[in-house]
Amino acid sequence: MKDRNFLDHYFLSVYNKLEADALLFNRKLPHSVMIGTENEVALANILRDFLPPRFGIEVSGIVIDHLGGKSKQCDIIIYDANIFPKYFRKVFPIEIVYGVIEVKTNLSSDKSVTAMGNLESLFSLDFHPELTNYWITQSKKKNLKAQPPFGAIFAYRSEARKFETFMNWFPFSYVLRGIPLSKESPPEIRSLTIVALDKGIIEIASSNRHVHRQVPIAMEDAYSRSFDTIVAGKKECIDPAKALLFFLESIWTSVSTHRLHPGFDIRSYMSYAMDAFLDMGGVKDTD
Questions:
Q1: Phi, psi at residue 17, to the nearest 5°?
Q2: DSSP-assigned states of every residue in 212-253
Q3: Is 179 in contact with 233 (CB distance < 8 Å)?
């Protein structure tokens, strides 16, 4: 077989590092919650190495909107590190959030429902760029559109024996939950990507009402690390390094093409008591 090129070697080493960290955590830690947290950290570290510094990566935080809404606790939040007010710490205004990733050590039917419930709490937040009178005017004048944060689910393993079982856990209707999307041009798009390293990939987007599914088949040189699954009644060998490569590439595409809120305004998050000022007017300098 032809020797692998540079990128093949690179992504194989990334997969090996992720698996090694996960295996170490799973062996050393006594509690499943601790294992889950450390597996989130392992994936977050991979993302920090993969994405440019302007994309911040935070483990265990919540997303809020200017109306007082808040998400459930998110495993990994990807945000705009250039404009994030650091005094928010673990709380992220939705206007500067690119997306949220739910991480599962071993994905099951019940855990898929839990993960989607967490993402639905994100999808229910108000992301529209109409926080102040200025941005209401600018949004209408320039037809500015914000895009809701994308959702993703990353699983190290899946309890499903068949790929079809895995894919049926995630129907198209999931991306239509939450705050309604407008159909104006350019349209608002909500997307969801699900990856299980031992099963494959599912992509769902509200724009085309299509669910795209892919099974990363292992080549001969990848059999030693592959996982067996059933696809359309036939046994297939799944290459987890390919699945990880696709996931990272999908995250990169999502953050690089995402339309964030054009003008984040911290005062829109303040209460009336904090934002109430008495305007005394200005004095013109006559010197």
A1: -65, -45
A2: EEE--BPPGGGGGG-EEEEETTEEEEE-HHHHHHHHHHHHHH
A3: no
In the chain, the largest separation of any two C-alpha atoms, in whole Å, equals 86
**Other C-beta atoms within 10 Å of 84: how many?**
17
Phi, psi (degrees; rounded to nearest 5) at 12: -65, -40
φ/ψ region of 209 (left if φ > 0, alpha if ψ in -120 to 50, else beta) reads left
Q: Angle at Cα 72 formed by Cα 67 and Cα 73, nearest 5°?
A: 120
| Stated pTM of the model | 0.86
**pLDDT tens per residue, range 219-245:** 887 788 888 999 999 999 998 888 888
- Tokens matching residue 101: 């990733």
Distance CA 241, CA 145 (A): 36
Among the listed residues 21, 4, 15, the one whose alpha carbon sits nearest the alpha carbon of residue 197? 15
pLDDT digits (tens, 9 = 90+) for 140-189: 777 777 889 999 999 999 999 999 999 999 999 999 889 888 877 677 88
- Phi and psi torsions of 104, nearest 5°: -125, 130
Q: Which two tokens stand for residue 23?
A: 């295996």
